[in-house]
Amino acid sequence: MSAATHETEHHTSLGVDNRKLLMWIFLASECLFFGSLLSTYLIFKGESLSGPGTDIFAFEITSISTFVLLMSSLSMVLAVYGAQHGQLGLMKLMLLCTILLGLVFLGFQVYEFKTFASEGLTLSTNQFGASFYILTGFHGCHVGVGVLYLSSLLISSVRRNGIGKETPLYIDIGGLYWHFVDIVWIVLFTVVYLIPAY
């Protein structure tokens, strides 16, 4: 089988690799998922406040964690660039940076959740607490899955045979997922932390 045949056999009639198309379809379904969670949060944002509400949010800490996640998006772009231009050292370094920044973000989220719980806002405090924790918690789970996904790519890349001939495609698909997670957080940060409760 020729190299040209190998490169085109996974392409759809749209000219996009079917694995990449599948990731786009998955991310579209995730938009619907997060849309429903965000709608629920907005419905209960100012309702049933039998305990703490948005007044306990630590804007400074969340701003730092948001900056960390945005920097991880930059390192992911550089990892994709390295993969596409055959600079595997750059790709591996930037994948490692993305993973570490993702873990730092998760650490901030755990700290924030523990702080809120100590101030009386838990999953069972009120409807606002339940919708807040489910919304931001599910995003944290997605970041965790992304960290595991990128870690598997990094581990594969340091093995003797690497990821294979389609390394740029695999890193690009991982980048799509990671950028989606970052974009979702920008929306959540804006709606949850920046827009005041009415």
Overview of the structural elements:
By secondary structure, this protein is an all-alpha fold. The protein has a domain at 63-198: Four Helix Bundle (Hemerythrin (Met), subunit A) (Up-down Bundle), CATH 1.20.120.80. It is 76% helix and 0% strand. It has helices at residues 3-8, 18-44, 59-84, 88-118, 127-158, 167-194.
Summarize the structure.
The protein is mainly α and 198 residues long. The protein has 6 helices and no strands. The chain has a domain of 136 residues: Cytochrome c oxidase, subunit III, four-helix bundle (Four Helix Bundle (Hemerythrin (Met), subunit A), Up-down Bundle).
Task: List the SSEs and their pairings.
Blueprint: H1 3-8, H2 18-44, H3 59-84, H4 88-118, H5 127-158, H6 167-194
Helix pairs in contact: 2-5, 2-6, 3-4, 3-6, 4-5, 5-6
List keywords for this structure.
0% strand, Four Helix Bundle (Hemerythrin (Met), subunit A), 198 residues, single chain, disordered N terminus
- Quick check: average pLDDT? 87
CATH superfamily membership of the domain at 63-198, which one? Cytochrome c oxidase, subunit III, four-helix bundle
The CATH topology of the domain at 63-198 is Four Helix Bundle (Hemerythrin (Met), subunit A)
- Indicate the overall shape: elongated
Number of DSSP helical runs: 6
CATH architecture of the domain at 63-198: Up-down Bundle
Strand content: under 5%
SSE string, helices as H and strands as E = HHHHHH
CATH C-level of the domain at 63-198: Mainly Alpha
The chain-level structural class is: mainly alpha
End-to-end Cα distance, whole Å, is: 64 Å
Helical proportion, percent range: over 70%
Give the strand tally.
Answer: 0
Low-confidence stretches: 1-8
The Cα radius of gyration reads 19 Å
Biggest sheet layout: none
